[in-house]
Amino acid sequence: MASSREVVLGRIRAALSDRPTAPEVPRDYDQTRALGDVIGLFAERAADYRALVRRVRWDDLPAEIESSLRARGATRLVAPADLPAVWRVPGVVWSLDAPAYPLPVRTLDRSDGVLTACAVAIAETGTIVLDAGEAQGRRVVTLVPDYHLCVVREDQVVGTVPEALASLEPTRPLTFISGPSATSDIELDRVEGVHGPRHLEVLIAG
Amino acid sequence: MGRNPVTWLGSPTFPTAARTALADVQLRGNLAHATGTIRTKREAAVGELPDWERLRRAGEAIKDDVLSNLDVYLTRLEAAVTARGGVVHWARDAAEANEIVLGLVRAAGATEVVKVKSMATAEIGLNEALEAGGVSAIETDLAELIVQLGEDRPSHILVPAIHRNRSEIRDIFRATMPGASPSLSDRPAELAEAARAHLRRKFLSAQVAISGANFAVADTGSVVVVESEGNGRMCLTLPRTLITVMGLEKVVPSWRDLEVFLQLLPRSSTAERMNPYTSVWSGVTPGDGPREFHLVLLDNGRTATLADRVGRQALRCIRCSACLNVCPVYERTGGQAYGSVYPGPIGAILTPQLGAGTDDPGTASLLRSLPFASSLCGACYEVCPVRIDIPEVLVHLRGRVVAEKPAYAPEAVAMAAASWVMVSPRRFRFAQRLLGPLRLLARRGRVRRLPWPASLWTDSRDVPAPPRETFSAWWRRNRG
Ligand code: SF4
């Protein structure tokens, strides 16, 4: 008996016996757009989705991280092991996570939050993208804690979705984040805060 | 067999179900409110992109390319997923897909699985099949949870509980959610919080998760899930084993194609610039996420649909649900009247095609009635992000019904006539004026039934009786 794979592929070939021709895909949509100040636009659009957004000077980053954590009252933080050491500010208990020594889910769940960097940010949609690369950690560390503080370098901000995808490696685990967890399931209105982090704070540093 | 899983067992034909739905004033109110809100928002989200029409054309062309070379892209996807440590399974129909999934869950030693909303698994009735096999499936989407706890059926692709308003949801949670506070209010944020608390423990201990897929990239083996709440991320990241069930047509050729769909989909569906979370993974990533990944490629009527030269365009659908939100018939009847997991205009063209092989007479009669559940106003085609000409397919499928069943098909004629009246208040008033002399049929101010052809309309709806000034009112106006 033919395998299901052979049966399904056979059905497809039979269904296409009229040999429909594949059209050329028109790629005349915008790859980039004149969006003006993309950093400002990113800040505005991320804030539109109720992320807390602050623009800070790169050199002040440790102090700014400290003040964000103090304002939030967060004292037990999770971070990927390769987070820059200067970001691990004093006055906070840091638990470091790496694939070789993963934190138990319980620890993540009981923490006050997580601090990471990102791979790229999209101005037009107010999106940050994590690719499990440098200072971003395993996917679970930015998922279970209720508060995510994310550092975006100004030179990581691009204008459009096509620009962002072109800069990403598709075989890495990717997470696109646009504002805190939300739902539109009740009367189709966006409500923040379901299963993912309910509080997203973005520091744009340049 | 006999059971066609695309439809719900024992569903009446569309006109019959529509009559019940139309009598439900609460349902109509909830629907009109929700679809009205989303329509306005969608227009704004779409209006922001100057190249929207070009994106639609690109989306259409990419999907047509996929369909024209489906065997090539699927085998390419299979190779890429396998190379990255995933396992690919092929399923001819619902029964086979369910069997594969149940076998995998058993092999993982689990008796409970967490699920993220997926049309494909709803289509094949996976939850019921798992239940029968001794595995309980926990829906983790807020709306699916509302449907599951309320022992209800979904009524919208994107917002399955759209027919419920906030106070009904509060009542369902209070009555059925273990640990829900009796003082739970109907504030959406508080309802969401209750769901969060309810599901958190399940997520943190789950061994197996089941998902659908919005897209899968043939070149790289990358699978994409688009969501809002984070329950998707939980399912895709925490459990040891991940099983993804995906319709054959969800494959896209290359990574670059996502730059089109990740713009078209969120703006068309939730009317957002971007949905809160999109997850992408390729096979298994050591040290990050599930250690086992299975991808089930589902036919279940898709290849039969592909064989129809006009009807195959329905396979371009990216399940955004924009066509539901603009459909005057959907807005009045709700999703459950379509008797299938695919409601609204897309359901009217997809369900009859996916289910065409049924040998159950009841199902066959429902499927025959569906292409008539439309007024052919064309609004669905205008909003469709992949430019599916839904009216064209409807007309084509109606032709097929008539050809198959040359004898008088009452459901067809009834629905066509009723929807003609239903779509426009002007036509409705016109129909009322025509029928003015018949107001004597009214009891307590409601016309219950009018003679044919108006019965097609009154059978589906309580019609306010044509106004007739009472004698006392006339007296007061003229003498007082
Ligand atoms: S048919 Fe078009 S508008 Fe309707 S759900 Fe599918 S993609 Fe969206």
UniProtKB/TrEMBL annotation, chain A:
Database matches in SUPFAM superfamilies: NagB/RpiA/CoA transferase-like
Domain of life: Bacteria
Pfam families: LUD_dom
InterPro entries associated with the record: FTHF_cligase-like_sf, LUD_dom, NagB/RpiA_transferase-like
LUD domain residues: 108-204
Protein name: Lactate utilization protein C
Species in which this protein is naturally found: Actinophytocola xanthii
From TrEMBL, chain B:
UniProt superkingdom: Bacteria
GO BP: lactate metabolic process
Limits of the 4Fe-4S ferredoxin-type domain: 308-337
Keywords, in A-Z order: 4Fe-4S, Electron transport, Iron, Iron-sulfur, Metal-binding, Repeat, Transport
Molecular function in Gene Ontology: 4 iron, 4 sulfur cluster binding; metal ion binding
Name the UniProt record assigns to this protein: (4Fe-4S)-binding protein
Pfam families: Fer4_8, LUD_dom, LutB_C
Keyword Electron transport: yes
InterPro entries per the UniProt record, alphabetical: 4Fe4S_Fe-S-bd, 4Fe4S_Fe_S_CS, FTHF_cligase-like_sf, Helical_ferredxn, LUD_dom, LutB/LldF, LutB_C, NagB/RpiA_transferase-like
